[in-house]
Amino acid sequence: MSWLLLTGAGLLEIVWAIALKQAGGFTRLWPSLIGIVSAVISFIMLSLALKQLPVGTAYAVWVGIGALGVAIVGILALGESASPARLGLLALILIGVIGLKLVEA
Predict the structure, then answer these.
(1) Which of 14, 21, 29, 71 has the fewest CB atoms within 10 Å, counting from its CB?
(2) What is the mean pLDDT of the chain?
(3) 22-44 b/e with 16+ CB inside 10 Å = b?
(4) End-to-end CA distance of the chain
(5) Residue 17's CB: how many other CB atoms inside 10 A?
(6) pLDDT number for residue 104
């Protein structure tokens, strides 16, 4: 259950980061609200996952899911660079997240 909570928290990190990008410095109401609400829920889910998981592992996975997801959204939806170097480094983040799950299982 803790890994499911952690995964959900990481996915919500993607939501709040993209929402804050769209909020334009909190000048647009709905993206701002979506960003704030999803951030709060993400933090709550992370804190619940921390009851069972080591903090270093949980935090690294949470940040990794968020960073990887935001980068992918940036590439696919926002026209950000998809250079081979960037994609390779993002693959390393994915390998790290998967590796942490495997060693903590």
Answers:
(1) 29
(2) 96
(3) ebeeeeeeebbebbeebbeebee
(4) 12
(5) 20
(6) 81
Q: What is the pTM of this model?
A: 0.91
Q: Report the alpha-carbon distance of residue 62 to residue 65 in Å, rounded.
A: 5
Question: Does residue 105 have a pLDDT over 70?
Answer: no
| Cα–Cα distance measured from residue 73 to residue 100, given in angstroms and rounded to the nearest whole number | 23
Two tokens, residue 39 = 């951030």
Structure-token pair, residue 90? 């993002």
Alpha helices by DSSP H, 1-105:
2-23, 29-49, 55-77, 84-104
Q: Tell me the C-alpha distance between 91 and 83, whole Å.
A: 12
Measure the CA–CA gap between 105 and 99, rounded to whole angstroms.
Answer: 10
Cα distances from 38 to residues 15, 32, 52, 98, in angstroms, run 7, 10, 22, 24
DSSP 105: -
